Known about the structure:
Strand order of the largest sheet: 2-1-3-4-5
Keywords: Ribosome biogenesis, rRNA processing
Helix content: 40-55%
Shape: elongated
GO molecular function: rRNA primary transcript binding
Organism: Cyprinus carpio (Common carp)
Subcellular location: Nucleus, Nucleolus
Largest sheet: 5 strands, mixed
Radius of gyration: 43 Å
Number of strands: 5
Structural class: alpha/beta
Region (Disordered): 1-100
Amino acid sequence: MDSNEATTSESVSKKKGKTKKVKRKVKSDEAPVQEMEQAEGEETEKKSESGPCFPPTFSVSEIKNKQRRHSMFLKLKEEKRKKKKKERKALGDKAPPKEVPKTIENQRIYDETTVNPEDEEVAFDEGTDEFSAYFNRLTNPKVLITTSDRPRGRTVRFCEQLATVIPHAHVYYRRGLALKRVIPQCVSRGFTYLMVINEDRKVPNGLVLCHLPDGPTAHFKVSNVRLRKEMKVRFLDNSRK
Length: 241
């Protein structure tokens, strides 16, 4: 029994000695690892201070993430700008002049065929134009606004509100009267324009504008009509947000 206890005590003491040696070795190995980590930390701090470093064959287009690609592009752009600024500061008076940005105005080539507004032929054409009295504000246009046959409530309200926007405008409801009979009455009463509002499925969808008495006539498509009250409600809702 005594011999067994002696052997077990010796084995335990040997194991303890081995564990102590291993701990010392681990402690000795931890020192260079800590030094390496400190050196790496200093290098990363220096890199962060100087800016992001990229490999020489790096391309921003290789980044698949859109947000990251955009941020990297801005960083590269800022680096180039700082680099150019340092170079210009180092050169001083010998620095080359700044590049003028390219725009549509400074890249436009002068066209010799463009008409000079002070040309005699242009002035003559403008003076003899049939609409020259309107452009020179010598005559005030008088507009008659009418609708298609049997209009609905929305079209009627649209015509009333349109008359408040157009100066010298009057609203006339046809009530089944043909346009061939309306036009002579407009000419006799001094109207210079006839405006017809068409509708489809109780909604305004077209506008015909005719110059009296001999034309020309133009047709316009109307879509997404909003009356004054609807626009006001929408504006208030947006302002509250």
